[in-house]
Design goal:
The complex is a heterodimer of chains A (about 325) and B (about 290).
Chain A lengths: L18 E3 H15 L3 E5 L9 H6 L4 E3 L4 H13 L3 E7 L8 H10 L5 E5 L17 H6 L5 E3 L4 H11 L6 E4 L4 E3 L14 E4 L7 E5 L4 H13 L4 E5 L2 E3 L3 H11 L2 E8 L4 H12 L4 E6 L9 H7 L4 H14 L2
Parallel strand pairs in A: 2-3, 2-4, 4-5, 5-7, 6-7, 10-11, 10-13, 13-14
Antiparallel strand pairs in A: 1-8, 6-12, 9-11
Chain B lengths: L5 H25 L5 H5 L1 H11 L14 E4 L5 H11 L39 H16 L7 E6 L6 H12 L5 E7 L2 E2 L2 E2 H4 L5 H7 L3 E6 L3 H13 L5 E6 L22 H13 L10
Parallel strand pairs in B: 1-2, 2-3, 3-7, 6-7
Antiparallel strand pairs in B: 4-5
Helix pairs in contact in B: 1-3, 1-4, 1-10, 3-4, 3-9, 5-6
Classes of the chains: A alpha/beta (about 325), B alpha/beta (about 290).
């Protein structure tokens, strides 16, 4: 039922599936981007290892800038480096960058038209024990509202590596959202990746009755939910959206036309995130019922990642319930 | 080393006076904007664009140019007026300041005026951008690249933490090709800096942050040129010039009054200001009398 064209990891349903933190893919991707282009530089705000920039920093110390715990400086210095032809990647936790330095990103990077790649790690509630202060569940909204900004949200470490390498090649600034926890590997090196192009990951042979549109680590839970429906003879397709902006309007409309109902799934506030982007697309083009999986106007708290995903109603069972609800709403 | 002869000094004094007139004219036409800061900085801008900067107004994207980052974007009228007098745009175009479709946005935006190095307005981020430029330059060319990097800042924006974050990194990286200029005019939008948020002892602060510090009279061309020369000759650390200026300089009813931070002269006030600038109390005979 996995979409063959996407060349996905066939072992993703295996309980022993390989699990890797998404942020690790960024670290590997940055190293590759740095090897490919000498203008790639890295800047970090005292979180080099936990954002996985340390591999780049070790290999290219002369192209790495440690700015200390100073996220406003992080992005404004990056803007200056971009003005001189560099391709800066900045990394911190998403709660601090873009959480703390949003205006500097808006003015000195986006408005100023300086190509910088802003990497926000530890996004989502699955950050876990650190608690609500460190769980960025507003960052997609913050970044997608800025003109001239591309927003990427990879679903696993391999996709994060590709997203990082692709981000080095764009003309416009990019935000990459990364999760801290180990995430099942769903894609393979062969899975195509193009910024702005969403992909169907799970597709039963018959026409879809509901389309799930998901981003980030929760794509795996969305696929598990869809698979469960498939065993009951209900056809649910899952669309992986790694590019939240520019949203793949064509793929979303196509899925809405086929399925007639949509469930959006994201580890983010339902206000302003992927679900909102999809709703904007559907309402303007092809309105169908939509249910939203995400955090509902609340802050996070300490706990184990899985525990928190369940508490904030983003687990596979919650996705199934949302599918049931939207099925009933279909005309 | 930068030097300045008497002829050039007098020429620049006249040029600064013309630029002040252009500032007043553009603000009158705009009907909004900042008066005090631009008038106070006219001498330093004149010295930069006509004596200190390595630049080519006919080729703004010249790779070898020095980089000038304006951090406190609200003094845009002096930047625009100086650039116009230097040949980046027609002086006549200054009358489009703050108008729809103008290259001269209320706060500088390089999308509309590509000769600018940066877009600015929100305070506290310019020094860090200049730090980033300087760092990138050092990666490419080493310590003696031949290019100088300037960040023009206001004293009020030293309230911003981002300013000091940039200052710390410049010290850490020993950015010898970086010079910050602080417009020490003692006012900000709601009052005097020392009432709103005390900055003194400002020289000590910068020294404690590891910078080479000079305090100068920001209206004395010899002092200005000498300070930039000293800054360029400093080979171990970044330099900051704390330029004591008089906000509203040249227009007596504006001088030192914080109320003129953020408003333009009306028609009557503008005419009076221009009259005073054109005669300048008889001190300088304008060529355009």
């Amino acid at each position: 039922m996995l979409n063959e064209k996407a060349k996905l990891n066939t072992k993703m349903f295996d309980p022993e599936v390989e699990q890797v933190p998404i942020r690790k893919g960024f670290g590997e991707g940055l190293l590759l981007a740095g090897e490919k282009n000498k203008n790639v530089v890295g800047l970090c705000a005292d979180l080099t290892e936990s954002t996985q920039m340390h591999m780049f920093a070790r290999k290219f110390p002369e192209r790495f800038v440690q700015v200390g715990v100073a996220e406003q400086n992080l992005v404004t210095v990056a803007s200056g480096m971009a003005a001189m032809g560099k391709i800066p990647f900045t990394s911190s936790y998403a709660m601090f960058s873009p959480g703390r330095n949003w205006e500097q990103i808006r003015t000195t990077i986006a408005y100023n038209d300086r190509k910088v790649v802003i990497v926000g790690s530890h996004a989502g509630i699955s950050v876990g024990p650190d608690g609500g202060t460190h769980q960025a569940i507003e960052d997609i909204a913050l970044m997608r509202v800025i003109p001239n900004m591309t927003v990427l949200s990879p679903c696993d470490a391999i996709e994060a590596k590709k997203a990082t390498m692709a981000a080095a090649e764009t003309k416009e600034p990019v935000y990459i959202r990364l999760a801290r926890e180990k995430t099942p590997i769903m894609t393979t090196e062969e899975t195509p990746f193009e910024i702005g192009k969403a992909q169907i990951f799970f597709a039963p042979p018959m026409n879809a009755q509901v389309g799930i549109v998901a981003t980030g680590a929760l794509v795996h839970r969305a696929i598990l939910a869809a698979k469960k429906f498939a065993t009951k003879g209900i056809s649910i397709k899952v669309l992986n959206v790694h590019t939240i902006k520019p949203i793949d309007t064509e793929a979303i409309i196509k899925l809405a036309k086929e399925a007639g109902a949509i469930v959006s799934v994201e580890e983010h506030q339902i206000i302003g995130g992927l679900g909102s982007a999809i709703a904007e697309t559907l309402v303007a083009n092809y309105p169908v019922p939509q249910e939203f999986i995400g955090v509902r106007n609340k802050f996070g708290q300490s706990g184990l990642p899985d525990e928190l995903i369940e508490h904030y109603e983003m687990g596979a069972a919650h996705i199934e319930e949302a599918v049931e609800r939207v099925l009933k709403r279909k005309k | 080393m930068l030097t300045l002869d008497e002829n050039k000094k007098q020429w620049m004094e006249r040029k600064a006076n013309e630029i002040r007139q252009s500032i007043v004219e553009s603000l009158m036409e705009a009907g909004s904007g900042h008066s005090a800061g631009p008038l106070g900085m006219a001498d330093i801008f004149t010295a930069l664009f006509f004596h200190i900067l390595r630049h080519d107004p006919t080729n703004p994207s010249w790779e070898e140019r020095d980089r000038l980052v304006l951090s406190n974007g609200h003094i845009a009228p002096v930047l625009y007026a100086t650039m116009a007098h230097a040949g980046y745009l027609p002086v006549e175009e200054l009358k489009t300041l703050r108008k729809f479709g103008s290259k001269l946005q209320g706060h500088p935006h390089r999308e509309y005026l590509p000769a600018l190095e940066n877009s600015s307005g929100p305070l506290g981020s310019g020094l860090s951008q200049a730090v980033g430029m300087c760092l990138a330059d050092r990666i490419d060319r080493g310590k003696h690249s031949g290019r100088q990097f300037y960040a023009l800042m206001s004293d009020g924006e030293l309230d911003e933490g981002n300013s000091w974050e940039g200052a710390m990194l410049a010290n850490k990286e020993r950015l010898q090709n970086l010079t910050a200029i602080v417009d020490r005019n003692n006012i900000q939008i709601e009052g005097y800096t020392e009432d709103i948020m005390p900055l003194e002892p400002l020289k000590d602060k910068w020294e404690a942050f590891g910078w080479h510090v000079q305090v100068i009279d920001g209206h004395n061309f010899e002092a200005i040129v000498n300070a930039f020369g000293q800054a360029q000759a400093e080979f171990s650390k970044p330099s900051v010039i704390l330029a004591n200026t008089i906000p509203g300089k040249g227009v007596s009813f504006m001088e030192r009054h914080y109320e003129w931070h953020g408003k333009p002269p009306n028609e009557t006030q503008g005419v009076e200001a221009l009259k005073e600038l054109r005669t300048l109390g008889g001190k300088i005979k304008s060529e355009h009398e």
